[in-house]
Amino acid sequence: MLIKISKFFLYATAFTVVIVSTSTLFPFIVGKYTWFRASVDFALIAFLLALVFDPAGNSYWERLKRVLKSPLGIMATAFAGIFLIAGFFGVDPALSFWSTFERGEGGLQILHLYALFLLLATLFTDKKSWMKIFWFSLIGALFMGLYGVFAGLGSHNFLSSTIYGVLGIFSQGATGFIGQQFSDPGFRLSGSIGNSAYVAAYIIFVLFYTLYLLKQQFGKEGRLTSKVTLISLLLIFIATFVLAATRGAFIGLIVGILAVLAYLGFSKKTWRKWLIIAGICFLIVVGVLVYFQNSAFVQRIPGSRIFTISFGTNTFATRRIIWSIAWHGFLARPILGWGPE
Predict the structure, then answer these.
(1) Does this model's pTM top 0.85?
(2) Could you tell me which of 181, 306, 289 has the C-alpha nearest to residue 239?
């Protein structure tokens, strides 16, 4: 029973992305890390109690030890440890550990992420558990995108106002969905995350979960309803990615797709010719869209901002400044740096 409780709270972490706390100064941040940390803490407490009181507690203890001794476990432990040590020897150890109300990161967050890793690796010993948390992640991502859609419709829209009126029963002082409206110049979907750049990066992971689940459904036991649902979700997530209009994530996705094609071409010789053709066609299409980024046709495509890739953009110029600062900061303190946060 205790293990089931622990896994329940691990599944709950998949919905962190949906939480928006309108009553706090930073609505897109505070509620999320509060929900995430509470879920991980409850999962950890239930797991520790299971080690003592559950008849199968010893088997989970042995499983935890194997996880810690595995190469991935060693790397995760080393990363968390070095992160904490870097904060302790940094310029502001307290800030490095506790972070700020606005950011909710630092060493405390790393410890929760480390605990999440250990619990997932220890308790999710079967494929069914991973499939379930992937499904919950898709549901969370869907609601994340819908939040952005309702915000885009505007608070005076009947649908948005009605839905938020219902949600307001559970949220005192609710003022409506927060975010850009579709009519705003340069609209970019920020969802319940509150930042379009983070939305795009998050959706890349969600696309992987969706494709992985879809691959499983095309096995012998795949159901038609599940296939249709996953294909529909895949199209929705692609649209969400495009509407987030984040060029960095778009470039990352292109590189990722080419890497997958290269891997498949290396491992499947019979597919190699067709994969090379597919890769070339993919590059040509993307290249044409980028080259004609200022044409009326491309500009009419929703999220066309992702095609405006140029070394002359303001965002690239600011990144060069940041990279220069980071490089000089590394030269000044090359071992453990200045401390997180």
Answers:
(1) no
(2) 306
